[in-house]
Structures are given as C-alpha cells and as structure tokens.
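Subject: Protein entry, chain in single-letter code together with its fold tokens

Category: Structural biology, sequence-to-fold work with a learned token vocabulary.

Notation: Tokens come from a learned vocabulary of local backbone shapes, not from coordinates.

Start of record: The labelled sequence and token lines come straight after this line.
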Amino acid sequence: MSQHTTRRELLLQALTGYALIPMLLRQDALAGPVRKEAQAWLSRTHQLCSDVHDRKLEPREWQQQVESLFARVPLSELVRAIDADRLKPGLELPDDRAGATSAPLPRVEGLPRVFGTKLFGLAQGRAIVPHGHQNMVSMHVVLAGEFHLRHFERVESQPKHLVLRPSIDRVSGPGDLSSISDQHDNVHGLVATKGPAYTFDLIVDRLDPALGFAWKLDYVDVDGAEPLAGGLLRARRIEFDEAVRRYGKT
C-alpha cells in the first residue's frame, strides 16, 4: 500500500457519514492523490464550520471532529494550502506578544465560508497571553517552533474572577493540535519556548446571535490565581495591557 493511498484512506474515514465523497467524485476532485486530499479536508472543514455556526453541531463536538480531521492532514499540505512560507517572512514578530496575519484557506465551490483563518507568529520567549473566550470556537495547529501550552476549563464566571480547572499543560511542537470553545478548554495561553514559532488558527464566531456580540476575550492572571478546593483556581480578570506586561515576554 502506497503512502498516498494510506493518506487517502485516512481522510475518507474522517469523512464517513457525510455526503461529500459523491460530490467530490462528480467534480472530478479525486483525479490525483494530492488534489484529492486537499479537496476532501477543505470540504470537510467548510462543512464542520458551517454546522457549528448554524447550531447543527455542538461546539464540543466541533472540537473533537475538527481535531480528528486535521490530525490526518499532512503538515506540509496545510503549510502549502495557506502559503505559509510566503506569509512568514512578512509577519512582524513584536517584542511582547504575537504577530498575526490572515492566512486564507482555499474556498470550496458550493459551500459557505463562515470561518476565519490566521497565522500567528512569536519570537522565542514571547507569548499569547492567558485568555478565555466567549461565543466562538477555534482550533490551533503548531506549524513551526515549540510552545508551552496551557488550557483551563472555565467552571464559573464571576464579575472580577474566573474559576478555572487546569486541563492541559504540555510542550506543543509542529503538527500538535488544540482547540477551545465555551464548553471545553475555554481558557488558554502559549509561550514560544523555541522560536520563531508559528500557529495556524481556524476560528468560527457569532455562534449565538442572541448574545449581541460576535466574540469576546477575557484576560486572566492564571499564575497569580487563588487555589481553591478540588484543584480549582480563582483567577483575577485583568486588562489586556496588564496581561501583556505579566505574560507577554519571558
């Protein structure tokens, strides 16, 4: 069995139960192995993001399915799809935070595009400061470098604090995936331990129109948090400028 065949079969397994394979066959999208792989995961990405945006898919389920899908995508294919090698040289890497630029995935004919995509870059020792999210989901793939990645479950929102439960604390290298939603692993922060380091981010916001805002971020002081019973932490809400002063540069 060839390497290309193995990749195709894995992607087809990820698409099982969705009416995308017949569509791709009709469009002759499966003519070559590389083209087939790209069309399959791009179509699946559009469909998953449309489903969570239209509330046909729960955010937690979106996290599981989109991580499973991108775990099967060769990192070189993702880098090629967003033209990361062209984008990286022009991306400014600030001295106390991440730099970011749009990194569009190719469109898929007939499928709506309801998501955004970005390339984030950090110099070594710089950070994406700890923050929580509201009314959005996002998935993050490390493209290069290395990060210290931390996630926390949001257990309770208080006027001046968030009650958190630590959930992920690991070194994250090229190809590693993580995701957030209001339901799971809501607060995260990353420090570039080997740089320059880059992530590709896939984002869907405006999940609940009744909230009246597209998305919000809640910055928190996780290192200064008060320990509570059961391993919980009571972390103070802080402004972005304070978060950058505390966490943006190590």
About this structure: The longest strand covers residues 136-157.
